[in-house]
Amino acid sequence: MKENPLKPWLLAFRFKTLPAALAPVFLGTGLAYGDGVHHWPSACIALFGALTIQIGTNLANDYFDHKKGADTSERVGPVRVMQAGLVSPTAMKCAIGLMFGLAALAAVWLYLRAGWPIAVIGITAILSGILYTAGPFPLGYIGLGELFVFIFFGPVAVAGTYYVQSLEMNGAIILSGIAPGLLSTAILAVNNLRDIETDRRSGKMTLAARFGAEFARLEYLVLVLGAGVMPSVIFWITRDHILVLSSVFVLLAAVPTIATVFFRSGPALNKALAQTGVVLLGYCAVFAVGWLQ
User: Fold this and answer.
1) What is the pTM of this model?
2) Which residues contact 53 (CB under 8 A, 6 or more apart)?
């Protein structure tokens, strides 16, 4: 039977990481809808831009991690297509250029809608996606991966999505992006915990590689607990939208995942990564519905 030529690309897109791109855009759109300032075309373009940046970043990671020797046959995570020889370097570079090119087109549309703040966000997000694993000082190799993920998949994504629809901003919206940022960072923390040994051998000094597995496990716990605190903080500040507090209960679904992170290792962490993505989506969905009331 002839193998599906799309299969390597589906692997390279890393679908388990895409909730980090989807969830904050869904949340920002829900907040805009609840405030009566939504704009569906802008929401759709923002979603498209977020997905293309995330996929472009994943493809760039696959290419540059292989080039730098971080992805080897010893890794315990899912197949990386460059390391496995499933995609040629030329094809991968073309795909990276295509994804970031599409992201740039989305950024241009949103700039025409919302002005220079969105242009700055778009350009910075695209450059950061490339420089996460590329360049002389790649963010993921010097321990800045968590900071990048928190900023761009948290407050920036939520507030940016809200702004391109409403053309206005307030502190509660920015604060609402903190929890998605923390949970997206938790996805990265699991990834780095799983890859800690191969990362160390290749010189990819993530926070987990620098400070050890116990640090990474505590990091994951703190990130999830921090996300659980944020709804109460936002309600205390706004004195409105009391039902956003119900989003805390979604985080109970993370309890088994926390146990996996603390007591399992290797391939078991692949499931923990995917489950964290599901928790992120669920949290944002419930928070957004709560904001409507």
Assistant:
1) 0.94
2) 21, 99, 100, 103, 125, 126, 129
